[in-house]
Description:
Elements: H1 26-43, H2 46-66, E1 69-70, E2 78-79, H3 83-89, H4 92-123, H5 130-138, H6 145-155, H7 162-169, H8 181-208, H9 213-221, H10 226-254, H11 258-263, H12 275-284, H13 289-314
Antiparallel strand pairs: 1-2
Helix pairs in contact: 4-8, 4-10, 8-10, 10-13, 12-13
Amino acid sequence: MKAARSPLSDGAAVARPAAAVPAIPATSVEAAAGPSGVWLRRLFFVPTLIYLLVMTIFPLLYSLGVSLFDYTMGREARFIGLRNYADLLADPLVWQALRVTLQLTGMAVAIELTLGVALGFVFFQQIPPIPFLRLLVFMPMMLAPLVIGLFWRFLLDQTFGLVNFLLSALGLAPVPWLIHPQFALLSVLIVDVWQWTPFVTLLTVAGLGTVPPELKEAAALDRASGWMRFRHIYWPYLRFPLLLALLFRTIDVMKMFDVPYILTGGGPGNFTTTLSLLAYRYHFQFFQIGKAAAIAWVVVILINIVTNLMVRWLMPRAPQEQVDTGL
């Protein structure tokens, strides 16, 4: 009996169409998950919403309500509407503190961005001593503000400070760093720049690490100038990190409290008193809690105005993509 030959025995390959697997539409997946799956995803947001409500939204609304009252320690609170804000507009201490705050913000942010970008390009180089230098430069932003304030208060002391000792050794006259109006403001600026320039440097190094190597090789082959490399190769990758640094440092300096409080106490006089420090004085020295809350809200409003203007001016004009979160 002769066995039947298979078509594959002659070496002829028979192509069989693969079974088509129907694609499951996203709507079918969501329908299979049911309403319980959607609510389960939304349930994961509940802890975050509770945290924001308890730690952020409620204190903000409560302080806004307090700012509408004549709330002085030892007396019954009395609703006065916007009178606290009207009194602030006529208070010369508020305008002095506003001027000091804006001066510190403009000078500190400009210097920190300039030095941070320059140091970022230096520390991005692959040189043996660079890792050790990075550790020394990044250390100040890891220290507590209290430690930094006391440390610099000792260094800048007119009588026993190390800075004046070095100036005297060089034959120069000692400088009244903490008791002269102009030098006191300069001291606060120096401390803030010393502490937070490493933050800008860190973001710059991170941004430089995202630049594709082939772009740098092409620029080297084309013998592009330093400005052309920065403008067309590095800047597109540094724009977003530097925008973050600009926003964060602007917000931090505009609500600065710890450095002038520890270093100069807001003095001499009120030449280093910021808005946050003035709010502290109204609350804990003058016991005018309603007016202190009003000053705090002035800081909040000012920060929101400045940051929104910065984002509007500095963000690229690109169409916003709508993202479906599935919620």
